[in-house]
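User: Okay, second chain of the day. Same drill as before: sequence in, structure tokens out.
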Amino acid sequence: MDARTLREFEAEARARLGPAHYDYFAGGAGDEVTVRANEAAFARLGLLPRVLRGVGKLQTDVTLLGSRAAMPVLVAPTAFHRLAHPEGERATARAVAAAETIMIVSMASTVAVEDVAAAAPGAELWFQLYIQPDEAFTGEIVRRAAAAGCKALVVTVDSPALGLRERDLRNGFHDLPEHLCCENLRDGDRVRPIVMAPELSWEHLDRLRETTSLPIVLKGVTHPADARLALDHGAAAIMVSNHGGRQLDTVPATIDLLPDVVAAVGGAVPVLLDGGVRRGTDVLKALALGAAAVAVGRPVIWGLAAEGERGVARVLGLLRAEVEHALTLCGRTSIHDLDPGMVRPCRS
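Assistant: Same drill. Structure tokens below.
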């Protein structure tokens, strides 16, 4: 295949996936206002380049919580990779390792975290977690992730209930095929469901932090007040995320929310962003507005569905090449030399 952009990879993936599975990955909650807004908001922002800056060898690597990434683009946690390709998360992990970046392994992975790590020795892995009401079971999952070599926990905090995903309801998509399951949820001879628990609070996060030495990233923070509370409760990093528009519809685009969260944190911890990143220019806009790195989810699934491991590698390679190209054209040598003055609203 000859896809040259992430959107072309999505078109190829749509042709290869069954309609219900494509809709599961592509869809969002309600009217999908937030799904559309995440991408549209980047298009409303422009980059203001500098000229005659003598750009030299580019520096795109970043170190986050002890993990190095060759580019400021991480792989966001997404569930059910084996719906997209038989090798699933194994193929994704191998491509991520080759790209020298960080993969956040989903709690809802269709390959166990131990097997993901074994498929890509030396890969930089973090682990995404929904805190479960059964705290002993949560603790066991955390211990497994740490033993597998995951270097951070990414705790999703925007999901006290599952989003109303109407595409899935129309398609009757409720469960994985019989040959697949969420392998990280095995408990003896059964596989537990993921429980979305409305009663979860900051106290649960405090108790989790007492049980592990892994740094904790809070994923799903959108309000500056919550960002400040996250610091009070020992978060090592914050990810500005609206769950790709899959939880509460009409939450604003993450790139619009980013500056206020960055200001609230005041440089105390790294701030990451996911949602709507489809171009290298999007990455630069997020970094200029204060993000330490971004994470991409759906584009990785499109690459995986289109060409397996090679497709994921090509998606990540496209993003890295676009980041380097945009950095050069902006007159900057390093991703650490970006500032809010580079970003201006575009008039429609």
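The chain has a mean pLDDT of 97.

User: Thanks, on to the next one.
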